[in-house]
Amino acid sequence: MRRLLIPAALFLLLALLFAYGLLFYPQDSQLPSGDSLEAPSRVHWLGTDNLGIDIFAQVSSGFFHSLSIGLAAAVIAFMLGGALGVAAGYAGGRTDAVVEFLINLFLSVPQLPIMIVIGAFFGQSSLNIICIIAAFSWAPIAKQVRARTMSLRKTRYLILARSYGGGLWYLFRTHMSRDIMPLLLISSLAVTGRAIVQESSLAFLGLSDPLAKSWGLMIARCTGFKGIYFTEFWIWWLLPPVLALVLSVLLLRLFSRALENYWLGKE
């Protein structure tokens, strides 16, 4: 239980810190509030970028932008992967063969190059990024759910309930959900962390919403600033979004792993 609470509490503290930066911090994340490349101070906690925009405000806004995209992609992957995995594992036959082929197809293709091509084709918007990430995130969930459903299908109580005329939705709601839902939730939480990294990667390449304060876009603008590494400006301009990205994904991963150990009885 302690391993479960520690990453959850740390992630909550991180979210509260960035919520302050988004809602109550006096500086704006879109408009300049100081001189270009100001050093950290009491007015600007992490300094300003080359346009004079406060960096802490941008990092705070980027946290919720990336998290919202990650959660939205996870919800779509949760629904699509769960539905296809249960249907394939329960029905078997041609349904299972088709779903298994799609799972193997999406797991075998190189994700980032395909995501770059699709992102460039459909344009720069948060909705497109969510759909692209979700399209490449459902397959691992469906694979795990399919395997679990196939094992549950052979249990005596499920065979008995099916012999009395129980349909798939009834069987899932009354008998299968308690075994499959924890697996679905854990997998979806892992998808959220990967989606944050993927969104930042696409934003770094200029394929995300250019008006959104994404961590990837912040990193791209910093690294594209000429002569940035010959000064100390990169310390407060580049490191905050990088550290925020690493810390957020790490805490989500640790929480997902601890939740898996707790729910699936590994502890």
The description of the largest β-sheet is:
none
Q: What is the CATH homology-level superfamily?
A: MetI-like
- Counted beta strands: 0
Distance separating the two termini? 9 Å
Low-confidence stretches: none
What would you call the shape?
Answer: elongated
Q: Which range best describes the helical content: under 10%, 10-25%, 25-40%, 40-55%, 55-70% or over 70%?
A: over 70%
Mean pLDDT level: 87
Count of domains: 1
Contiguous helical run count: 11
Q: Assign the CATH topology.
A: MetI-like fold
CATH architecture: Orthogonal Bundle
* CATH top level assignment: Mainly Alpha
What percentage of amino acids are in beta strands?
under 5%
Describe the protein.
- By secondary structure, this protein is an all-alpha fold.
- It has one domain (2-14, 53-263): MetI-like (MetI-like fold, Orthogonal Bundle), CATH 1.10.3720.
- The chain has 11 helices and no strands.
- It has helices spanning 2-23, 55-91, 93-108, 111-122, 126-135, 138-153, 156-163, 168-204, 215-223, 233-237, 239-263.
- The model has no long low-confidence stretch (mean pLDDT 87).
In short:
The protein is an all-alpha fold. Helix content is 74%, strand content 0%.
List keywords for this structure.
267 residues, mainly alpha, MetI-like fold, elongated
Walk me through the topology.
Elements (H helix, E strand, L loop, with lengths): L1 H22 L31 H37 L1 H16 L2 H12 L3 H10 L2 H16 L2 H8 L4 H37 L10 H9 L9 H5 L1 H25 L4
Helix pairs in contact: 1-2, 1-11, 2-3, 2-5, 2-6, 2-8, 2-11, 3-6, 4-5, 5-8, 6-8, 8-9, 8-11, 9-11
